[in-house]
Amino acid sequence: MAFKPANEIQDLQYFGEFGGVNPSISDSSTYTFLSAKTMFDTFEGNADGCYLYSRHSTPSNLYLGEALAAMEGTETANVAASGMGAITPTLLQLCAAGDHIISSRTIYGGTYAFLKNFAPKLGITTTFVDITDIDAVTAAIKDTTKVLYCESVSNPLLEIADLQALSHLSRKNNLKLVVDNTFSPLSISPAKQGADIVIHSLTKFINGSSDAVGGVVCGSQEFIDNLRNVNDGASMLLGPSMDSLRAASVLKNMRTLHIRMKQHSHNAMYLAKCFEADGLRTVYPGLKSHPSHEIFKKMMNTEYGFGGMLTIDVGSLEKANALMELMQERNLGYLAVSLGFYKTLFSAPGTSTSSEIPEQEQIEMGLTDGLIRFSVGLDNDIERTYKIMKKCMEELQILEPLLA
Ligand code: PLP
Question: What are phi and psi of 40, to 5 degrees?
Fold first, then answer.
């Protein structure tokens, strides 16, 4: 039977301490004990249901973690203060000095910078590959390789990782497949495709309000326990803990994620089809012209669509900047990084979210100057939005004016 991630979230039941329909927020950094022995057992992780100190865990963070684990179909999850606060401890938990990571070369700029510039200081090296080329991934495996890292839908080029093939490869070679699913929550369930660990920046679609940063690692109980171990757990010791008040607000926003994702996907599909028909170079996994359209289809939970992210290439950075400024002036969205907001957000990744990637490497991976990344909003009337966008493009001679 098809996996229904939104049902899994909806079926969870929580009550507040006075019977409230929302769980009470745990507004404390530390917790008292009636017995010193229970305190010791809790510190050692042997007293289920007891809390000691809020960097370790809090009821509010556990509720949110449970909902995210239900959504991804993993045993459990650990929430973090940001997406990077989920990614970096995960990689540091899985790798030690001398170990090697294989990563997709098209990933979020911050993750790229961590792997390229920071992890080598700890003796962890990375080979960046074209993740859609399984032969290239296979060829990069070494005796010391521990992790295969990718994004289900990559930032910003929207390349699609064939998770079944990558999972097969990682199992055969005893690697952990770590997948960042930030761009495709609900649409793709990486753990169901064989990923060992699924990560999100909650900052984006899952929270959906652009009012907070957050992250999560979804995985096996054993791995999450390792991350939280007081002696050598990377999440515990590096300390990127989410605040309970924020965890409670993210949980409330998450309950409408399925409705929002359907609308983001509907609107993005509409715009992608129109842009492509207008002759713009358009990348959207829902278009038949996308090289991995069929792979996305094979993996997807159909009802949520192909997601809210698309890119177009308008030829040059000058044109991209002019178009984004004009679209903002016409109230079509905001010139801003990040994604998953109710308004459309647009940015030129080469000079913003992927600027950590050196220019030559940007060229090699096809990250062109004129690329605009759209996080398509929840517009009620996407036809009207498109008409105004088209007019902006005609005014800037990105598209030939209709009556010219
Ligand atoms: N992963 C992806 C795909 C992202 O786009 C981002 C941020 O843009 C991150 C991870 C990092 O998340 P955060 O900014 O919440 O640390």
Answer: -60, -45
